[in-house]
Write a structure and sequence with these properties.
By secondary structure, the protein is an all-beta fold. It has one domain: Tachylectin-2, Chain A. The chain has no helices and 23 strands. It has strands at about 10-15, 35-45, 80-85, 90-95, 110-115, 120-130, 155-160, 165-170, 175-180, 190, 215-220, 230-235, 245-250, 255-265, 270-280, 285-290, 300-305, 315-325, 325-330, 340, 345-355, 355-365, 380-385. The strands form 5 sheets. A 9-stranded antiparallel β-sheet has the order 3-4-5-6-1-2-23-22-21, with no helix packed on it. Strands 7-8-9-10 form a 4-stranded antiparallel β-sheet, with no helix packed on it. It has a 4-stranded antiparallel β-sheet with strand order 11-12-13-14, with no helix packed on it. Strand 5 (about 110-115) and strand 6 form a beta hairpin.
């Protein structure tokens, strides 16, 4: 989703890094069993990019969960996307800032690189880069004359890295696909999806939007062969069955949508998706969650969604692989009890570490969310969970 923040700075993360739904095809033995916590990391909420620009002037003074605004530096906003670099480091994408266009014009969109070390209990922040449009690819007005992109320009929620080292990001305001260089420079004009326009779309021109606010490309998947992208909308398009989400196909060679798409059906129309990643040609891991936090959180799950639709009901088959509110923790990882809960409003990152292990991160909506401790701004947490069974993933999904 949007509003996030996770503060990296020169800081370090302290690493020490379910009720099943009915299966609808997919895994031959039905839903997986109870996943186990194997790693925990926490990045303090008040982590900022060193020597950066002030931010947060438009959100009010607060305090919000004990934190007053504005901020002297840029907060490292909640992780809304992740790339595994397969060298022990991760690229993590901060989303649009503070929740909407109106209050995020002084938040600079950024990709951060982090290196967790579960043995030492720390995560080293290796730096990062801002997203910008120096080649003037964006045809509509931007917030800043220097063309550094802000949360008033785009709401970036998902990211993948392709074979040439460049990045593609999914935006919610268009929604648009955005193609960036390895250093964050926009390489092409924003690419729209025909028939889908959010209320924030700059080309709406008084027309009726076809999707809700901040309900654009929450998920973005790179196919295992590297030839296609699969952007997943967070909300239903007008005219579609409520709760059905379009999972489209975009061809990287032709730079065009193929017209092929799948349908991911939410377990409740009140739910939303948080992220998606490919397991093989047909199967994808998808985070689905409700809007609750803390004790009010009731539904935070990861499904294995299969596009082959073996039961012929017109939607992707779903198998529950992890209930994030009921994770076994027999070793007391992170100092938590025997049951670990990941009770955050927005959980927006999942990545494969091996055929049975996932890394999952929350978006802490800095400084607004307080799912871990009431009245205290959420940290950004990085957890690793081991599934009860192998995914039998395509080896390319692990590279």
């Amino acid at each position: 989703m949007r509003r996030s923040s996770i503060l990296l700075g020169a800081a370090v993360l302290t690493v020490a890094l379910a009720v099943p739904a009915t299966a609808r095809g997919g895994h031959p033995d039905g839903d997986f069993g109870r996943a186990t916590l194997t790693g925990f990391a926490s990045l303090p909420a008040e982590t900022y990019v060193p020597h950066s620009e002030p931010s947060g002037a438009l959100i009010g003074e607060g305090p919000f969960n004990g934190i007053a605004a504005p901020f002297r530096d840029q907060p490292v906003q909640g992780f809304s996307g992740i790339v595994n670099r397969h060298d022990g480091t991760f690229d993590v994408l901060s989303d649009n800032g503070y929740g909407n266009k109106a209050n995020s014009a002084d938040y600079l969109l950024r990709v951060h690189r982090v290196k967790p070390d579960t043995r030492s209990g720390k995560v080293e922040v290796l730096g990062g880069f801002n997203l910008s449009d120096p080649y003037r690819k964006v045809p509509f007005p931007l917030t800043r004359s220097d063309r550094v992109l802000t949360g008033a320009d785009f709401d970036v929620e998902s990211i993948v890295r392709v074979a040439d080292g460049t990045y593609w990001a999914g935006d919610e305001f268009g929604p648009f696909l955005l193609h960036f260089s390895a250093t964050g420079r926009l390489l092409e004009a924003p690419i729209a999806l025909d028939g889908v326009q959010a209320p924030e779309n700059p080309y709406l021109n008084g027309a009726q939007p076809t999707i809700g606010s901040s309900k654009g490309f929450e998920g973005l998947v790179r196919s295992v062969d590297g030839r296609r992208l699969h952007p997943l909308l967070e909300g239903s398009v007008a005219g579609d069955t409520p709760g059905d989400l379009r999972f489209s196909e975009f061809d990287l060679k032709s730079r065009a949508y193929t017209g092929k798409r799948f349908v991911y059906r939410l377990e409740s129309t009140a739910n939303a998706i948080g992220d998606a990643v490919a397991v093989d040609r047909h199967r994808f891991l998808v985070i689905e969650r409700d809007g609750g936090q803390g004790d009010d959180a009731r539904f935070k799950r990861i499904y294995l969604a299969d596009s082959r639709d073996r039961d012929r009901d017109g939607v992707m088959d779903k198998t529950l692989v992890a209930d994030l509110l009921d994770i076994a923790n027999p070793k007391g990882v992170g100092g938590f009890g025997e049951t670990f809960r990941f009770p955050f409003t927005t959980i927006e990152d999942v990545v494969l570490l091996d055929d049975r292990t996932l890394a999952v991160l929350n978006d802490n909506n800095f400084p607004f969310s307080s799912g871990r401790t009431p009245g205290k701004a959420d940290d950004n947490e990085f957890i690793t969970v081991r599934l009860t069974d192998r995914l039998h993933a395509d080896p390319r999904a692990l590279r």
